[in-house]
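Minutes, structural biology subgroup

Action item carried over from last meeting: produce the structure token record for ABC transporter substrate-binding protein (Sphaerisporangium dianthi). EB confirmed the sequence was re-checked against the source entry. Recorded below for completeness.
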Amino acid sequence: MKRRNLIAASALLAVTGALAACSPDQGGGGGGAAGDAGGNNASSCTNTITKKELPVVTMWGWYPNMQLVVDNFNKQNGEVQICWTNVGQGGDEYQKFQTAISAGTGAPDVIMVEMDRIPTFQIQNALVDIKKFGYDKVKANYSEGAWKDVSVGDAVYGVPVDGGPLAMIYRKDIFDKYKITPPKTWAEYEQAAQKVKDAGGPKFGDLGSNVPALTMALQIQKGAAPFTYDPAQPKAIGVKLNDQPSKDVLDYWGGLAKKGLVGTQDQFTPEYISGVINGKYATYISAAWAPGYLTGAGVGKGKDTGKFAVAPLPQWDPANPVHVNWGGSAFSVTSQAKNPELAAKVAYGFYADKESLTDGWTNQIIFPLNLSALKAPEFVDAKVAFFDGQQANKEVYVPAADGYKGVTYSPFGQYYFDAMTKQVSAIIDGSVTGSQAADKLQEDVAAYAKEQGFTVQ
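Output recorded by EB:
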């Protein structure tokens, strides 16, 4: 079937910048093919199961603090135990999962996936709709936007754990030097960038071709709706990548680059991080997981200490603010689960206890989506060291998370991201305008969808 071939190709992913940022690879007990890395075999756990009389649910995941969270769950649970294996981060895990899907064996009961990958696996019937297994009991624990990101149509295919509400990180020293206040609109952002350039200052930001998920989020903020998809009509998909909001955003950033107001360096590279450390960029448009990533990359230390702050993402219409997200992970039940109902209980209950959530956000491993953490005074009022003690959650990230409404992802998201990367690269080298790039992107992705057997609406 053409769409099965599509998904097989799409699932062989390279880890995206967003994933590398919010979930840095810590090695672990993975490696090898899916069949020899655990799957449904509970004899190869990374963790030690002490309650051996209880049934076991196998799990793949890669958070840096997985060992702690698994141990917390097993210690507190008297009904089921988790056998956890790290088979690799992001793309490495997805490759092994795809192998298991194709073979019909070798997948775990529960798997950690980025939310935008869920439709890729759902369309292969590789994930279970867990709505009938206790969703009503935990629905109030997460926002409407968080649930939408893990849903396909009316079905729920994962439990949200962490997210990435977007904001604007900035260098206080650069803003002070050039007498810049945090821009509230994108028009003000461009004006500030021009002011800094005219005064001989650094680039104000960066247009990277290797962060297509960020570009998509910024287009959605302007009003774009790239995809519409409902599994009730599995052969139809809406693809709208060259509407006016999409063109406006690409033209805007392409214009900033052409004027020399922002850089065009790929992000998550040593060169880019060196630029951030050395004050080459006045702002960094990124998600709530960025402080943890930047700290791990050496930013905000030594001579950089105390120089960073964060402000809300600039808006197109400040009277009608739109909050968007970049990144985020969930735990899904696979169709190879021995006991889907029991596996769903694990997915619903994992990374949901106070100790695990607190460890996650205090060590900047996750930005929690569980409202028990997101609304907790100690989280909301926390003074973030990376931002020199600024109450970043209260002032910026929590309001952004509260306002996020969720998006509809496509079942061929990786192809779309690759195509977006190609077009942003063309904008950067000057061979196309933003509007032209949007038209080419629409043509490319719509044609690909049709090749896979979809009717494009």
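Discussion: Residues 165-324+409-456 form a domain with the D-Maltodextrin-Binding Protein; domain 2 fold (CATH 3.40.190.10).
Next step: EB to file the record with the rest of the batch.
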